[in-house]
Amino acid sequence: SGKKDSAAVYYTNSLLAYNEALRFNKNNPYVRETAAKGYLSYGKYMGQEQGNIPGAITLLEKARQLDSTNADIYFSLGTAYSLNRQYDLMLANAQKSVALMPEDINAVENLATAFQVFVYETGQQKVLLLAAEQLLLKVLDTRRQMPDSNPDKKGGLIRCLDLLQKNYALQGNPAREQEVKNERLKCSSGN
Hints:
The protein is built from nine helices and no strands. It is an all-alpha fold.
């Protein structure tokens, strides 16, 4: 608990300093970007380490107000809104993250996940499953092309195949679901 308390004190003091800097330089892009990163970091900490999702959303929204071009802010907001069961906001933020970083396979995979979560949780817009499938196939192809020496390759492949398997289950396509499951198991065993 002492470690968490010291982190919270660090973040609180950092935000006080950022707010003071903003008070004197509110239109300075560097100050705004730096303060946004501070709010982003504290928002991630609050959500991931403290489990305070509403508090994390408040901090992440402040970060977004300060820097609306930071894709990581939208990525984190999408995740936080998903955990808070605000699926429309989850989708909007995941889409904005990809719009800002279209080549980032983690952002693309996150958007596909957001589509699947939306359909699963709301039962609406099942066409999003087809969009998620296309995004995941793109991510899978990119991950397959990574060099074997890339430490993210195997874990990324397994995660993407797991998401594809879930997608086919949601689509009601048991043949493709089994095919992807077999590939995921083969990948997990290292063959």
